[in-house]
Amino acid sequence: MDILYARQRATAAQVMESLADPPGYSAVRTLLATLENKGYVRHEREGAKFVFIPKLHPVRAGRSAISHLIQTFFNGSRGRAAAALLDVAPSQFSREELDELEDLIRKARAKSTKSKGGVR
User: Fold this and answer.
1) What pLDDT, on a 0 to 100 scale, did the predictor assign at position 81?
2) Residue 85 in 3-state DSSP?
3) Which of 47, 69, 105, 107 is the most exposed place for a label (fewest CB within 10 A)?
4) What H or E segment, with its residue span, contains residue 88?
5) How far is CA 85 from each of CA 20, 60, 101, rounded to the nearest angstrom?
6) How far is CA 69 from the centre of its chain?
7) C-alpha pair distances (Å), 16 with each of 34, 53, 88
8) Confidence (pTM)
9) pLDDT band at residue 78, thresholds of 50, 70 and 90?
10) Is 76 helix (H, G, I), strand (E, B) or coil?
């Protein structure tokens, strides 16, 4: 998907050219067909070639991928997924990243409090 987002449209051969260690052509075609079946990409025919084009905005695709990751590896727990992501040395976070995380937690707590009728 990163290659398709960067190029905006690409054939299977062009996707292969963009990969550092590409699998075989049929594997790339199968992956693109799977992405199309899942609704992430579409194709147009240009002569004998299929040109693949991303259908989802990158942010939406990212959210879908993260949701799948959380379901698959963390049994649906966003908290466990966040804990795994945060399992790094504190020095690896920039000040801006820490501020962003703090802001997200504050907003989540405020939203949780409102949805529970103000009871903590």
Assistant:
1) 86
2) helix
3) 47
4) none
5) 26, 20, 12
6) 9
7) 16, 15, 33
8) 0.59
9) confident
10) coil
Rounded to whole angstroms, the Cα distance separating 92 from 29 reads 38
The pLDDT mean for the chain works out to: 88
How big is the chain, counted in residues?
120
pLDDT tens, 4-37? 999 999 999 999 999 999 999 999 999 999 999 9
The whole-number pLDDT of residue 9 equals 95
Neighbouring-strand partners of residue 51: 44
Distance, CA of 68 to CA of 81 (rounded, Å) = 11
Backbone torsion region of residue 109, taken as left when φ is above 0, otherwise alpha when ψ lies between -120 and 50, otherwise beta: alpha
Q: Please state, in angstroms and rounded to a whole number, the distance separating the CA atoms of residues 85 and 82.
A: 5
Neighbours of 89 (CB within 10 A): 6
* Residues pairing with 43 in the sheet: 52
pLDDT top residue among 96 and 91 = 96
Contact 78, 85 (CB under 8 A): no
Distance CA 2, CA 31 (A): 13
pLDDT at 83 over 90: no
